[in-house]
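pipeline: protein-struct stage 2 | run 1193 | Alpha beta-hydrolase
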Amino acid sequence: MDVPTLDSLPPAREIPSAFAASVRSWWSVGEKQSAISEERLLRRLPFFKPQNSSPPPHNDSPVVAYSSRVDLDTPKRYLNTLSIQSTSPSPSAPPPAVVLHGYGAGLGFFYKNFPVLAQWAGRSGTSVYAMDWLGMGRSARVPFTIKAKRDDVIGRVTEAESFFVDSMEEWRQKMGLDKMTLIGHSLGAYFSVVYALKYPTRVNKLVLLSPAGVPRDPNTTIPSRELTDSRDTDQSGSAEPATDAKVDQIRAEQRVDKRRESRARRILTYLWEEGWSPFQVVRSTLFWGPMLIGKYSARRFSGLSEAETRDMHEYIMNITLAKGSGEYCISHILAPGAHARLPLVDRISALKIPVTFVYGDHDWMDPEGGRQSVENLRQAGNGKGRMYIISNAGHHVYLDNVKAVNDLLVKELDRQ
């Protein structure tokens, strides 16, 4: 695939606010523009080596980063990958970290976290990777089907989970990795736990950022918040160990929001059970799609600079309007309201590795699941479960309070 050279990468378009601009954006969507939109974000990393370029601009950098497609054994299946590798690897290096995005997102969402993770990799003589899940981001958009019947909940969940974690295991083998520390966000955190349960010898530790699918209670998680939240520009504060009082405070806020949810939720519930995805709904609007996505990205990432917000919008637009694939997993894994059909809180005690839960203090994921999971791990003899609350952050904790999350990630990666 041809990607523009370093000097010819065009700037992102303005976020469309009128129908004509939305139409122009819709026509521009495609694999080529998707690659460009991702590379715009990654070129913000001084150690990133674009395709078709000379050696990285900073030859004395302790790391070098590049993107690639990792082909799997099944034809037309590949996983989009960012590799950040130490230029002086150490024989005593800790296991590499693998960053895993959430539902309908992509590795580009973490562009503000990669610099600090790269510093850790350079200092430790190890690597950091980020991977797009099969059927999401810029990985292969292959058909997603489930053979299990609707009333076979365990069968549906197992099939859907295997689609993602088995392809990740194949990716691990192709990359030649022995053990990994998994840093997952939202649904990516859910899959990280599932992967660790299925392939326990391959995971060193887990860091779960606002994980989906943890608690049993279906009446606390507020997925509609993702469409209405805006990003707080106040990034003060830090990661604090979760106290019962703080968890109760977050849950009280969620209960208030729950009572405000509109009656339209009933329609969304019906579509959810019928296998529709939110992105399918957006794609069905055709020319209006870019403008609808723009309303979300302009609000949710308003704390970024104007150029960064445009770049994020174009990236989100291209991966959202791409062919539907892995997104159709959602109704098999989560019931309406983002409540897991097989909650992780009932499964996680089998893990023998360190597990860290991280929530924003304005999160729409219920932290009670994390609190109970840490207790279940403890009762099973694993005292390495921890939980933190990030100040001034919602569901996208890693973007809402970049410094606090970056500091915590390094702390957890270094922890013995």
